[in-house]
């Protein structure tokens, strides 16, 4: 049973390998890859016309005004995939102007016309599934199977909001005076600034852009500097789908400059952001001057509770999926696996066995289920957290060090006897480390689970139906997976507590 719960708003929510692969880099790629050669993958993407390295402003592909570029690297090999335009405030200002101008035409189309363009975009994303997935695996590192899954997931937002475009109904409210009639008409608010992270290079964009365009808003997207190629390819397909020049603009490069320009602009009416809590706070504060709407999806610290009465196979499978997706680099990853005393030993040994079966490698290899971490800083963070836990009494049950493949690969790791005084408990590790935390009673599990200011997602494994409802309602999280480890879907908004404010309402 997968249970997704809506909660009250109060609770929340380098030269281009691309352009030409050098002979030496091809050799290097082959050395690393079994199933697909990185050079061949890039050729395929280029042949499809989806290797874009310039920003998109007003329907035109443009270089940074000062000609600067930044390198996009393959985290699995360190190869430079491309040099992309490194933009800043001037390009962002032009992108905003273009979005603002286009707003007056895009918003005047009928919902049905906008819906058709979005539907076409969805179809093009799906018909270029392989190229988009290859791009994601190359620039982000996730295994191809997950990348293909992300294309489905990412495109599903466009499909869903193409359909919803036609259902932006207003309200008729019973009047308070006999001679009055009260009508609510929903109208798009204007230009939306969308700032997205690297861990879902496609889906975090479509999830923000889909609802905005559907309602008649126009968008300036700033993808992560680590993964701009997928964003640019998706934007190319949007243009091909008939989404007009200027309705979707993409700028990337100097993040603080781009962010500041978006925040300061009076034409930008809303900021939607997924990323770190620190940057989210800056954006929220910076948006105050121009009184913008803000939607933030910040860090998560998901608990995953395994009760004594859980089906152990279901619990192992579910917690494995919830923890190790994208090598532990998702905001809904099970960050703290709370295991009841009676099942702890049995669960721990079955879980360790399951984690041992994970194949670490280059995401282009068919057998790979765990790719590299995004960069060296991410590995250092994981090392710090694991070191902190062991210094305080936790025990490494599996892994616990860098992988022999080098680069930013880290061994899938299980750490036992973690407690709430450790970084592995209090902060998001964002890596392939599963901390097991023993508990005695249901009350204790709920208390430990809620002992954080993040409120994005939680998981629970139990065969007791009454307990599943009781505990779901006691968990202060926007999404609760019951006996299920994969809970993300396009149809549910995530409304969350304190540091997370995310809603599908970029426009009204
Ligand atoms: P993560 O740790 O997940 O990379 P970040 O918050 O650093 O999270 O990054 C998420 C997005 O926010 C990226 O697109 C990044 O470039 C952008 N970003 C980082 N700093 C700023 C800033 N000062 N203003 C606007 N955007 C920023």
UniProtKB/TrEMBL annotation:
It catalyses: succinate semialdehyde + NAD(+) + H2O = succinate + NADH + 2 H(+). CDD domains: ALDH_F5_SSADH_GabD. PANTHER family: SUCCINATE-SEMIALDEHYDE DEHYDROGENASE, MITOCHONDRIAL. This is Succinate-semialdehyde dehydrogenase, mitochondrial. GO terms for molecular function: succinate-semialdehyde dehydrogenase (NAD+) activity. GO terms for biological process: gamma-aminobutyric acid catabolic process. Residues 61-488 form the Aldehyde dehydrogenase domain. InterPro entries: Ald_DH/histidinol_DH, Ald_DH_C, Ald_DH_CS_CYS, Ald_DH_CS_GLU, Ald_DH_N, Aldehyde_DH_dom, Aldehyde_DH_Superfamily. Its EC number is 1.2.1.24. Keywords: Oxidoreductase. The lineage of its organism: Eukaryota, Viridiplantae, Streptophyta, Embryophyta, Tracheophyta.
